[in-house]
């Protein structure tokens, strides 16, 4: 089992604890920004600025906070709450947000160890719902990164794949888009192949978990639990992509300076339908935070679904 990831409750506790360490306060600020609790986050950021060791990270969080304020999602959140909308918090393994209008598109979201996409799922939803699609959120609470399906949906890789097909059919979907983050990215890409996805958007994902891989992966992916549950899933996805026509488009993002995320993205860079995007001067695993801070996130999401390209993505409805 991976270490427990700090959540919004931890962040709120540390934010109001006079004995919290600077590291706890930094994690609290990071989490609070990702949940859109910006006033409290900004207070912590200013408090930590006296320590130059946090300068770069604080600048990124401040920029992300400003972009969230400019984006209008805070107003959307207030309206969503006023309408009695159900909070999407990753505490359920699966949640389907149906689009009220006409659409044949769906986005399937695979989270990582942390049931966030750096952005909390609620904040991510406020961006994704602007794309006018159905959205299916998946979180593996057993931390088996979807290798064994989902306990409350369908067990086994094949079981979850078939369950997703059934859900997509019931929604009347004929165009599937898959996005995945961090530890959820490997299985997310595998499901995108089998679900014949139109596009796949991967943020800091792993692409080769084969035993003889020379790409670093970290201890989380070497756990005996994964080998016990699904040894057949520990493969290199590159040959699978070569054999399949799907996803029709693979879009990968990584920090240019991340020693693990970067080589996994570049592993697929020579395939013709793969686009690798490296964020300059970004070392952290939270590439979504980097895109938000740079004001690029909405264009990236629209391009992922509508294929208009980051500079002209406003053509999407």
TrEMBL record:
UniProt cross-references to InterPro entries, sorted A to Z: AB_hydrolase_fold
Name of the protein in question: Alpha/beta hydrolase family protein
Organism: Bauldia litoralis
